[in-house]
Amino acid sequence: MSARVSGHDDESVDERQRIAATAASLAVACLEVLAGVRRSDTIARWVDPELLAKIDHRAQLRAEVAPRHPASGLGAQPAVQPGRAHVCQVSPGIAEVTVIVRSPNRIRAVAVRLELLTTRWTLTALQTM
After folding, report:
1. Which of 50, 54, 26 has the alpha carbon at shortest distance from 113?
2. pLDDT, tens digit, for every residue of 41-94?
3. How far apart are CA 92 and CA 75, in angstroms?
4. Is the pTM of this model over 0.90?
5. 107 CB contacts (<8 Å, ≥6 apart)?
6. CB atoms inside a 10 Å sphere around CB 37
7. Three-state DSSP class for residue 47
8. H-run or E-run covering 21
9. d(CA 125, CA 76)
10. Strand arrangement, sheet containing 81-91
C-alpha cells in the first residue's frame, strides 16, 4: 500500500523516497566508517572529497583513542541500522535529511545534506548527534 503525500505528485514523492533511502544508506555507511567497521573508499563515489577527508581524519582519531575489537561470532547484528528519515527539499538540487539510526548501545540522529551533482545525489555535509 503506498501513501500519497498531499500537494505532491507521484514523481516528487518517488524522488523524496529515493533521497530518503540514499541519505539513510550514506548515514549508516558514514557511521560505520567512523566506527572502524567499513573502509571509506567504499563510499568515496557518493561523498564530497573534502567531507570524506574529514570523515577519514575523525575515524583515525577515534581509532587511536579507542581501537576497535573484532566482533565475536558470525551473523552478529549490524553495528548500525537505519530508521526513519525526514527529507527537507531545500531546492530541486539540494536536500537536507535527518535520519534516526540505531547501534547496539544507542540511538542517534544524523543530519546530512545531499546535492544533486550531475546524475546522482552526493553527500556534502554530515552532522551526528
Report:
1. 26
2. 999 999 999 999 999 999 999 888 876 655 544 455 557 899 999 999 999 999
3. 41
4. no
5. 83, 100, 101
6. 14
7. strand
8. helix 10-35
9. 30
10. 81-91, 94-103, 106-117, 120-128
C-alpha cell at 72: 565475536
Beta strands per DSSP E along the chain: 81-91, 94-103, 106-117, 120-128
Beta bridge partners of 85: 99
Contact 60, 66 (CB under 8 A): no
Assigned C-alpha cell, 9? 505528485
Residue 13, sorted as left (phi over 0), alpha (psi -120 to 50) or beta, turns out to be alpha
pLDDT in tens, 79-117: 789 999 999 999 999 999 999 999 888 899 999 999 998
User: The C-alpha cell of 77 is what?
Assistant: 547484528
